[in-house]
Design a protein that fits this description.
The complex is a heterodimer of chains A (278) and B (279). Chain A is of the alpha+beta class and 278 residues long. Chain A has helices spanning 9-26, 67-87, 95-112, 157-167, 174-186, 222-230, 252-257, 271-276; strands spanning 30-35, 38-44, 52-56, 59-65, 119-125, 134-138, 144-146, 150-153, 203-209, 217-220. Chain B has a single domain, classed as Aminohydrolase, N-terminal nucleophile (Ntn) domain (Glutamine Phosphoribosylpyrophosphate, subunit 1, domain 1, 4-Layer Sandwich), CATH 3.60.20.10. In chain B, strands 1, 4, 5, 6, 7, 8, 9 and 10 form an 8-stranded antiparallel sheet that branches. In chain B, strands 11-2-3-12-13 form a 5-stranded antiparallel sheet, with helices on one face. In chain B, 51% of the residues are buried. The chains are: A alpha+beta (278), B alpha+beta (279). The interface between A and B is large, with 45 and 47 residues. Chain B: InterPro entries: Ntn_hydrolases_N, Pept_T1A_subB, Proteasome_sua/b, Proteasome_suB-type, PSB_actinobac.
């Protein structure tokens, strides 16, 4: 048998942590924050590979780090959510359960595998009010933190988080929240410490819309996002009544053209199956 | 046991394995007991055991499709339910209805809805309309064993094809046989015991290019004709205010027509039949 060099468990864990932290800090950042109309995800992303996506009706997912690793986690999360929703009820799928499953998986990977995952992920669930929103941060070693209101992850997350927390309020409108998030993301990484200006094409933006029933996840892109970034919209889409079909996000036309995002208001998935049995 | 719960602390299998985009295939590996058609059934023919759901019709219109189903479920000579719902949205752009053993049908629809949503979430894009129909055919096929013992269910699937270049081909209807055969229908189709009469009514009245409202009226009339001649199909129940479930799918999404809307149409249909029994 070959003689192995002894390395203390502390040393192994330290090395793995350092490896994961290095990988994460190289990537672009993402922020998640609550606003008056729901939960907003903003990620700096130049590619068409998604960092932000839908897990379930009221649960969203954002991640930074290595794409193949967090994509694997995202798919597992969707599977767990759909399986639980199918075996129990759609209401029984909670953000906390998904966050716990991720913590379990990342913890197992961190201790068992040779290489830790270089990812940091966020699971957010939108509640009926801003106080009821839940935002969880799960790090590479499987630890979970409940982050009330706002969180940032990725390279220079501390600085971004600081900029966010200063100006964040739970009653921000969607436009205000998007501009705050983009300003915070742009506050780091510029030449000589100067803030950068991020355009719509450099961003991936999505919301969990508090007032919708059923699937609440919506992506915001293109003209809608540009409008939110540049000006103060007189009637923010977040303040519209829940009954009328939202003009944004995203506009109905855009939805037709690329049916990539989740469904329509009228999709009464499974709820009416329950009614049938009454 | 919910997946992901493994007290050993080891990585749950489904976190490690990238797998497919199909929820059904995922279930078949990780929770096969949840799949209809995977349960061992005692030998024998048991068609009379569970309630049966009956007639559903679907009609292509200019903007998409309309689907309407009566509200009756029967158990032998008895009415098992007066207000069962046989028509459901499959996803934002398509509708699914079922006839046959009600319990199996409802499970099939529920599984199909999750299947489509799951694919969309995993892949970030919707299945094509033909892809959705093929998935439903596969689900029906898996139920063949139970169907041969009398627990048969046959769905009908209709939706808008967002990739269609010809505006006349936006709305499409697919029918299925009990062995999982998939057939595309032209103009209209019906399933269930009353479909014979409903389709005869539609044959005389259907014409291409109907508006959604015209197609809804046509569907309610066809169900009236089915209920007229088939005991297992319920007509509009004006005393209890139970009306057919009518849904439409267009490029704007799916919509369930409210009881007030359908009630008004049902009442006008009944009033017309007072004048002329044949409609």
């Amino acid at each position: 048998m070959a003689m192995q060099f002894y390395a203390s468990p502390e040393q192994i864990m330290r090395d793995r942590s350092e490896h994961a932290r290095k990988g994460i800090s190289r990537g672009r950042s993402a922020v998640v924050l609550t606003y008056e109309g729901g939960v907003l995800f903003v990620a700096e992303n130049l590619t068409s590979l998604r960092k932000v996506s839908e897990i379930y009706d009221r649960i969203g997912f954002a991640a930074v780090g290595r794409y193949n690793e967090f994509e694997n986690l995202r798919r597992a999360g969707v599977r767990k959510a759909d399986l639980d929703g199918y075996s129990y009820d759609r209401r029984d799928v909670t953000g906390r359960a998904i966050a716990n499953a991720y913590a379990h998986a990342l913890g197992a990977i961190f201790t068992e595998q040779v290489k830790a995952y270089e990812v940091e992920i966020c699971v957010a669930e939108v509640g009926a009010t801003a106080e009821a929103d839940e935002i969880y941060r799960i790090t590479y070693d499987g630890s979970v933190q409940d982050e009330p209101g706002v969180m940032a992850m990725g390279g220079q997350a501390e600085a971004i988080s600081g900029a966010l927390k200063e100006a964040h309020r739970a009653d921000l409108s969607l436009g205000e929240a998007v501009r705050l998030a983009v300003k915070a993301l742009g506050s780091v990484g510029g030449e000589g410490g100067q803030p950068r200006t991020l355009g719509a094409e450099q961003l991936e933006v999505a919301v969990l819309d508090r007032r919708r029933t059923g699937r609440t996840f919506r992506r915001i892109a293109g003209a809608t996002l540009t409008a939110l970034l540049t000006e103060e919209p007189p009637a923010a889409p977040a303040t519209e009544s829940p009954s009328e079909p939202p003009s944004e996000p995203p506009p109905a036309k855009e939805k037709q053209a690329s049916p990539q995002s989740a469904g329509s208001d009228d999709l009464e998935i499974l709820d009416d199956l329950g009614d049938a049995e009454q | 046991m919910p997946a992901g719960f493994d007290p050993s602390g080891r990585l749950p299998d489904f976190f490690a394995n990238p797998g497919t985009s199909s929820f059904t295939q995922f279930l078949s590996v990780h929770a096969p007991e949840l799949l209809p058609g995977r349960r061992p059934l005692p030998p024998g023919y048991s068609a009379d055991m569970a309630p049966h759901a009956t007639t559903v019709v679907s009609i292509v219109c200019a903007d998409g499709v309309v689907m309407a189903g009566d509200r009756r479920a029967t158990a032998g000579n008895l009415i098992a339910s007066r207000d069962i719902e046989k028509v459901h949205p499959a996803d934002p752009y398509s509708l699914v209805g079922m006839a046959g053993t009600a319990g199996v049908g409802i499970e099939l629809i529920k599984l199909f809805q999750v299947e489509l949503e799951h694919y969309e979430k995993i892949e970030g894009a919707m299945l094509s309309l033909d892809g959705k129909a093929n998935r439903l055919a596969a689900l029906v096929r898996n139920n063949l064993g139970a169907a041969m013992q009398g627990l048969a269910v046959v769905p009908i699937f209709a939706g808008v094809d967002l990739a269609a270049t010809d505006p006349a081909k936006v709305g499409r209807i697919f029918s299925f046989d009990v062995a999982g055969g998939l057939y595309e229908e032209t103009g209209y189709d019906g399933i269930g015991s009353g479909s014979l009469f409903a389709k005869s009514a539609l044959k005389k009245r259907y014409r291409p290019g109907l508006s959604v409202d015209e197609a809804v009226t046509l569907g309610v009339e066809a169900l009236y004709d089915a209920a007229d001649d088939d005991t297992a199909t319920g007509g509009p129940d004006l005393t209890r205010k139970i009306y057919p479930v009518v849904m439409s799918a267009t490029t704007e999404g799916t919509r369930r027509h409210t009881d007030e809307e359908v009630g008004a149409i049902a009442e006008s249909v009944v009033a017309r039949r007072m004048e002329n029994i044949g409609g």
